[in-house]
Write a structure and sequence with these properties.
The complex is a heterodimer of chains A (247) and B (270).
Chain A: H1 2-18, H2 20-47, H3 50-65, H4 68-83, H5 88-115, H6 118-126, H7 131-161, H8 173-184, H9 186-218
Helix pairs in contact in A: 1-8, 1-9, 2-3, 2-5, 2-7, 3-5, 4-5, 5-7, 6-7, 7-9, 8-9
Chain B: E1 21-30, E2 33-43, E3 48-52, H1 59-66, E4 74-79, E5 82-83, E6 86-89, E7 92-95, H2 98-105, E8 108-111, H3 123-133, H4 139-152, H5 168-180, E9 186-190, H6 198-214, E10 218-222, H7 226-232, E11 235-240, E12 243-248, H8 250-255, H9 260-269
Parallel strand pairs in B: 3-10, 3-11, 8-9, 9-10
Antiparallel strand pairs in B: 1-2, 1-4, 4-5, 6-7, 11-12
Helix pairs in contact in B: 3-4, 3-5, 4-5, 5-6
The chains are: A mainly alpha (247), B alpha/beta (270).
C-alpha cells in the first residue's frame, strides 16, 4: 500500500511537470475560442437575417454533429495536404476544441437570448435604441446571467475533452499518464491523471459560479433580491432605508 | 422633459395642417386573423385620446403599430405628416429603411403594462440610458434631467435603488420618467395600471394627470380606468372588431353612449 502512495507521489509531479502545460494551453485556447464562436454563432442564429441564420445554423449542426476526433484528424492531416496550411499541433487542438464546443455554446447563447423577456426587447425598441446598443446595454447583461450555468457545464466538459489532443501529438495529461504508467504502473498513473483533471474542473467550475453569482446580483437576483430584502408594495414610506444585506 | 410646456387642450392648430398621427387604411393581420381592417383616424397635436373596447378589439395593437413593435400588414401611418414605416411613392407602398424608421420613432414614447424596467441597472441608469446612448446627451445632462423627472414622479430619493427594490407602482412611475426623458411628442400608455394593486393605481394616474396638465404631449391611452379617461382625455374611441364603432368626448361617451356595443361594454366595466 505504501508503495502505491510512493508511486502516486512519483506520478503526480511528473504529470504536472510534463503533461499539464499542453492540457492547460489547449483548454484555455479552446475556451477562449469556444466563447467567441458561441457568441458569434448564437447571436447569428437568434438575431441574424434569414440567410445568416441558415448559414450559422448549418455550421452549428455540422460541428455538433461530427466527431471531435475526426475533426482533429481532419485539421491535422487532411487540411495541410488540401490547402498547404499546417497549423501545428497546438493550434489544431485549439481550433477543433473551440469549434466543437463553441457549436454547443452557440445553442446556450441562443437559448439565453430567447429567454430574456420580450418586454425588455420591446422597451429597448420603444426607447429607439439601435440594435447594437440594445444588445450590448440591455439584452446581453441579462442573457449573460442565464448563459453562465450552460457555459460552466461546457467548460468542465472541455477540460476533460482535451484528453484527445494527444492524438495530434501533444504531450497532454492523458498522453503523459500513458508514459508514466510504464514506470509506476496503471493504478497510480491514471489515478494521478484523474486527480489533476478533477482539480482543474473544480477550479473552472468555481470561477464560473462566482461569475454567475455576480451576474445575478447585478440583475437584483440571488442574495440581493431575495424575498426578505425585497421591498413590499408599500409606497407610504419612500424615505425608509432599504433593508441591509446588500451582498 | 418637453421644452414647450404650454398646456394645450385644443387639437391640431391651423398653422400646421398635418395631424400629429394619422392612420390611413391600416390593416393588421396576425397570421390569418385580421385584427385591424381599413382603419382611418387622425389625432391632433396635443390631443389626448383614450381607446376603449373589449379585449381583442385591436386597441393595444394600434399602440404597438405606432411604436413599430408590430409590422403593418397594409396601409400607412403618418406622424406629423412623415411616414412611420411605409411611404407612398408614385402611388406605390414602399417600406422604409430601419434608419428612417428610427428617426420618426424617436418622437414616440411608450409605457407598458408590465413596466419593463431594465433589471441590470439602477433606477437612475434606467432613465439616463437612452438619452445618453440614443440622444447623445452628456452623462451630467442626462442625470440632471433624470433627477428632475424623478422629482416629478416623487421618487428622487430612490434614484440609486435597484428596480427589484421598488413596488409595482414605483416601478411604473420610473417607467413613465424613463419615457419622458426621451422628450417624446407622443406618449403611448398601454394599460399602465392593469398590473398594479388597486391602492397603487392612484399615484401612477396622479403622475400622468400632472404630465397631461403641464405638457402638450399627445397621448394615446388604452385603459380601463374610466375616471382617468374622463379626467385626461378630450376624446374617447370605442373599438370593436378592429373598427371604431363610436367616438365622442368622454362626458358624452360615458353618460350618453349612442352605440349599442358601447352601452353594453360600459355597463360591463363601470
Amino acid at each position: 500500500m505504501s508503495e502505491f502512495f510512493t508511486d502516486l507521489g512519483t506520478a503526480l509531479p511528473r504529470l504536472v511537470e510534463e503533461g499539464l502545460r499542453d492540457t492547460l494551453l489547449s483548454f484555455l485556447g479552446g475556451a477562449v475560442l469556444m466563447v467567441l464562436v458561441a457568441v458569434l454563432l448564437g447571436l447569428a442564429t437568434h438575431q441574424g437575417p434569414i440567410w445568416l441564420r441558415g448559414i450559422s445554423r448549418a455550421i452549428v449542426e455540422f460541428f455538433r454533429g461530427t466527431s471531435l476526433v475526426v475533426q482533429l484528424f481532419f485539421l491535422f492531416y487532411a487540411l495541410p495536404t488540401l490547402t498547404g496550411v499546417d497549423l501545428g499541433s497546438m493550434w489544431t487542438a485549439i481550433l477543433a476544441l473551440g469549434l466543437n464546443y463553441g457549436a454547443y455554446g452557440a445553442e446556450v447563447v441562443r437559448g439565453s437570448l430567447a429567454a430574456v423577456p420580450k418586454g425588455q426587447w420591446e422597451t429597448a425598441t420603444a426607447l429607439s435604441m439601435p440594435w447594437a446598443t440594445k444588445i450590448r446595454r440591455i439584452i446581453w447583461p441579462q442573457a449573460w446571467a442565464l448563459m453562465l450555468p450552460g457555459f460552466n457545464n461546457l467548460l468542465v466538459m472541455l477540460v476533460k475533452g482535451t484528453a484527445v489532443v494527444g492524438l495530434v501529438l501533444l504531450n497532454d495529461l492523458t498522453f503523459e499518464s500513458e508514459q508514466v504508467r510504464r514506470e509506476v504502473g496503471t493504478w497510480p498513473a491514471f489515478l494521478a491523471a484523474l486527480i489533476i483533471y478533477f482539480l482543474i474542473a473544480l477550479v473552472v467550475s468555481g470561477v464560473l459560479r462566482v461569475l454567475e453569482r455576480r451576474a445575478q446580483r447585478r440583475l437584483g437576483l440571488g442574495d440581493f433580491g431575495s424575498q426578505k430584502e425585497r421591498r413590499t408594495d408599500d409606497e407610504t414610506d419612500d424615505a425608509a432605508p432599504a433593508h441591509a444585506g446588500v451582498a | 422633459m418637453p421644452t414647450d410646456s404650454t398646456p394645450t387642450t385644443e387639437a391640431a392648430t391651423s398653422t400646421d395642417p398635418a395631424p400629429r398621427i394619422e392612420f390611413e387604411d391600416v390593416e393588421k393581420k396576425f397570421g390569418k386573423t385580421t385584427v385591424l381592417k381599413d382603419l382611418n383616424f387622425t389625432i391632433g397635436r396635443g390631443e389626448r385620446v383614450t381607446l376603449i373596447g373589449p379585449s381583442g378589439s385591436g386597441k393595444t395593437t394600434i399602440l404597438r403599430l405606432l411604436m413599430t413593435l408590430e409590422d403593418l400588414t397594409d396601409g400607412y401611418i403618418w406622424v406629423d405628416g412623415d411616414p412611420l414605416t411605409h411611404d407612398r411613392r408614385d402611388g406605390k407602398r414602399v417600406e422604409l429603411k430601419p434608419k428612417q424608421i428610427a428617426q420618426v420613432r424617436k418622437r414616440i414614447g411608450m409605457v407598458f403594462q408590465q413596466f419593463n424596467l431594465f433589471p441590470n441597472m439602477s433606477v437612475l441608469d434606467n432613465i439616463t440610458e437612452a438619452p445618453i446612448h440614443v440622444l447623445g446627451q452628456s452623462k451630467d445632462e442626462a442625470k440632471e434631467n433624470a433627477l428632475t423627472l424623478l422629482d416629478r414622479v416623487g421618487l428622487r430619493n430612490r434614484a440609486d435603488a435597484h428596480p427589484t427594490q421598488l413596488s409595482g407602482g414605483q416601478q411604473q412611475r420610473v417607467a413613465i420618467a424613463r419615457a419622458l426623458a426621451m422628450d417624446p411628442e407622443i406618449l403611448l400608455l398601454d394599460e399602465v395600471t392593469s398590473a398594479l394593486d388597486p391602492e397603487l393605481v392612484g399615484d401612477v394616474l396622479g403622475v400622468l394627470e400632472d404630465v397631461a396638465e403641464t405638457t402638450d404631449i399627445t397621448m394615446l391611452i388604452v385603459t380601463h380606468e374610466m375616471q382617468f379617461a374622463r379626467d385626461v382625455s378630450q376624446r374617447v374611441m370605442m373599438f370593436d372588431g378592429g373598427q371604431i364603432v363610436e367616438e365622442a368626448p368622454p362626458e358624452e361617451m360615458f353618460t350618453r353612449p349612442k352605440n349599442e356595443r358601447t352601452q353594453k361594454f360600459l355597463e360591463a366595466i363601470i
